[in-house]
Amino acid sequence: MHRFKTLPAQTALALLIAYAIPNSYLTAFAQAADGDAAAGGTKPVLVTGSRIPRASKEGPTSVTVITGEDIEKQGYRNVFDALSSQAQNTGMTQGADFGNTFTPAANTISLRGLGPNHTLILFNGRRIADYPVAYDGSVNFVNLANIPSALVDRIEILNSGASAIYGSDAIAGVVNIITKKQVSGFDFNIKAGGTKDGGGANQRIQLTGGGGSGNLSGVFGVELSRTDPIWSRQRDFMSSTTAGGTAPTRILSRQNVDTGKYVDPGATCSQLGNLFYDSVVRVQSKSGAYCGSGKAQPAYWTTMTQNESENLYGSLSYQLTPKTEIFSDLMLGFNSTQNNTRGPSWTSEAVGNSYFFNQNSGANESWSRRISPEEIGGATRFNRRWNDVAGNLTVGIRGDIPSTSSWNYEAAYNISAYTSRKTTPLLLNNVDSFFLGPRLGYDADGVAIYAPDPGRLSQPLTPEQFNSITGKATSRDKSWTQTLSLSANGELFNLPAGPVRLAAVTEFGSQGFSNTPDPQINQGVFYNQAAANGASGSRKRYALGTELNIPIIKELVATVAGRYDEYNFAGRNDGKFTYNTGLEFRPVKTLLFRGNYATSFRAPDMNYIYSSTTRGYYSSTTDYYRCQQAGQPLAGCEFNNYSPGANYVQTGSKDLKSENGKSWSYGVVWSPSSSFDISADFWRIQIDNLVTNLDPDIILRNEANCRAGQLDINSPTCVDALRRVQRNPANAIFNPNAIQNILVNPINAAQERTSGLDVSGKWRIKAGGAGDFLLKANYTKVLSHHYRQFASDPDQDLLNSLTNPDWGSKVNASVTWLRDKWTGTVQVTRYGSLPSADQTRRISPFALVNLSASYQITPRASVALIVNNVLNSVKQDNTAGWPYYPTGNYNPYGRQGWLEFNYHFGS
């Protein structure tokens, strides 16, 4: 039985600080109820996408709203779940629950399929620190995994570019996570559940509250949660890698490098038969026999990470005068994450040429051995661990400008920081001598000489023996950002149709990061570890922006915004002016026609700029060229998804240019009553000078297709791909044509552009004694998506490409029923088709159904049952072998359920 950890001293102190520091928001956001009409409302409010208070939540650009109640009723586990399920999030991202990535302790989204770094994430209208390790080893992003849901009032998603309002990053859209501003009394919430097929048990406790006394008011929240991992071996369809005739993974092998044949292990495999959950067998291949297991990879692989988190939020505000308020807020998060994607594995002389001269046999040989969970004291012994701390603090003052009737101001300072300490178990450099005995020197060709005892290779290890050949490496990463801002808005003058309103903002900010690897890596302490270089950098930014709201006639309103941002980094300045124009036309109160055109820009990611020359290896790699050479389909190819993967050499560039973007949108909103509204919007986004770090998998696909003649070998794409993949000579005596290194670095690509259609609707039905029904639906259809890496390359049609893992469409629909003390919600998310893993066809669309039901026991207490994936559906894809599902697009959890109890103390 798991129990929550005792709050550490720093957590308790943070809670006291959160209680003592005043509350802040950059803007006061709309309290838009489900039944608000598109053209209704009388009180001016601020919504994401504008700094000018307005009487309607609908403007020239569509905004999607997710309320705190939606997060609970629609079965979302957290803020990330809520955002990733939205129709606009058509891009595939791999995060915490897949694990075999650079950032398995973090989760992010990809609006419009343009990547995590093209969506601006705000917390109460302010920027927060990036996760300190780049997504996919390339781009900076905000981690959504540790944002607590306890105090979320609403999340607003601006579905278009907004650099003229918010500056860099706001190309694909803006996500603004808004906390509750007022809470009366105290609310206690406890939630616990698990999965039908085992693993993933989780518990959460939330306590929120607030109140006021005189001129002082405050809000606080505490959220504690724990989630157990799900291991691949707990899901039948992926508990073995041998489905479809795939050969078992090598556990023990001796290969004669001179002949290319394995030395028959004979009865050795039976000595290891009880390892890897009694699955080790003798495998006969065309190259000879070895010991193998179909459970070697599933034995260690987690598909849901283990997590323990403590998230805290506090705010206070003090009314200094009737028109002046001092405010601040503080958010702190402490997260401990564990995952596993492969166990310890050894190959002889891996830091050299991977083979040695066996003095006993007189042949060059390569030995390999995978070490099982039974030998090390359980698979968790080889878990990777992350201990993260994130903080966000804002202080400021706001009020009316003296001697004016309509102008108000706000001055605020915000600082946000994120630290991550990663601990990785690694084999020590004595592992060669452990299995082979002492090195006896080198022959004339520089090959190491040993006289090994084969019995040492086949003898199961004890945990004590394993401890003698393993250690831990700890890296420390951090990032931070700070902003000082001053904003004001009010009425300039009156036109016949109404006042012209203006908002202005100036910002001064800076941000930075550092990645510090364990110094033991470069001291040669660990086995087969390439040199690790740290990276760090910072930049400053300045911005000045203004926005005008102009009522041309009563039925026609124009919005014009302009902003200049300048970044100072790497000894140079890079500035850009962006602008935004929008029109709203209401021929009648219930009908709105809208249009928007905006320019955007994005300064290059700091990771792209400051990354030093780094050598390492990928968690796994698929060598498409060698699969083609062997005439093997991906599903059965020994070079498919092999782990550990190919080595890479990565460099940064301080000469990258900023990206330039353009976005268009136009649409219509019809709201004939407060119970019904529907909208449809066409959108198009284009990015020029796209900064991208070339994807190694795409490089390897292109290289294979170029060598096979499927692409023009003289094209810029082929010339580039062939240069980047360095291989052993075709006549090498060991591993001919094997990848030595993949060279990756960021470039300014020529262009990426995408377009599509958003449709959303809402209908509230009053059915008398049967209760009330609320129907909601959001639909996104991607109409085009093109990419061109070099100006001379032809356009790539990503929408119809069999290499692009993004969805072409997504539907999110729900029905909520309310009757007396009962509330129930059924939500369906339908995902469009995807390319199969072997890229030969498309796999069918997929739908997930969530259900929640709650009952109000008393005015203060309620209970709820939440079931995700009611039909226990898992989308499988066996075309390219294990793990047999589209990783990143879907998860293999199956049905999950929770029981929840809420109680309110106070008035």
TrEMBL record:
<keyword id="KW-0675">Receptor</keyword>
<feature type="domain" description="TonB-dependent receptor-like beta-barrel">
    <location>
        <begin position="358"/>
        <end position="870"/>
    </location>
</feature>
<dbReference type="InterPro" id="IPR012910">
    <property type="entry name" value="Plug_dom"/>
</dbReference>
<comment type="similarity">
    <text>Belongs to the TonB-dependent receptor family.</text>
</comment>
<keyword id="KW-1134">Transmembrane beta strand</keyword>
<feature type="domain" description="TonB-dependent receptor plug">
    <location>
        <begin position="57"/>
        <end position="174"/>
    </location>
</feature>
<feature type="signal peptide">
    <location>
        <begin position="1"/>
        <end position="32"/>
    </location>
</feature>
<protein>
    <submittedName>
        <fullName>TonB-dependent receptor</fullName>
    </submittedName>
</protein>
<keyword id="KW-0812">Transmembrane</keyword>
<dbReference type="InterPro" id="IPR039426">
    <property type="entry name" value="TonB-dep_rcpt-like"/>
</dbReference>
<dbReference type="Pfam" id="PF00593">
    <property type="entry name" value="TonB_dep_Rec_b-barrel"/>
</dbReference>
<keyword id="KW-0472">Membrane</keyword>
<dbReference type="Pfam" id="PF07715">
    <property type="entry name" value="Plug"/>
</dbReference>
<keyword id="KW-0798">TonB box</keyword>
<keyword id="KW-0813">Transport</keyword>
<dbReference type="InterPro" id="IPR037066">
    <property type="entry name" value="Plug_dom_sf"/>
</dbReference>
<keyword id="KW-0998">Cell outer membrane</keyword>
<keyword id="KW-0732">Signal</keyword>
<dbReference type="InterPro" id="IPR036942">
    <property type="entry name" value="Beta-barrel_TonB_sf"/>
</dbReference>
<dbReference type="InterPro" id="IPR000531">
    <property type="entry name" value="Beta-barrel_TonB"/>
</dbReference>
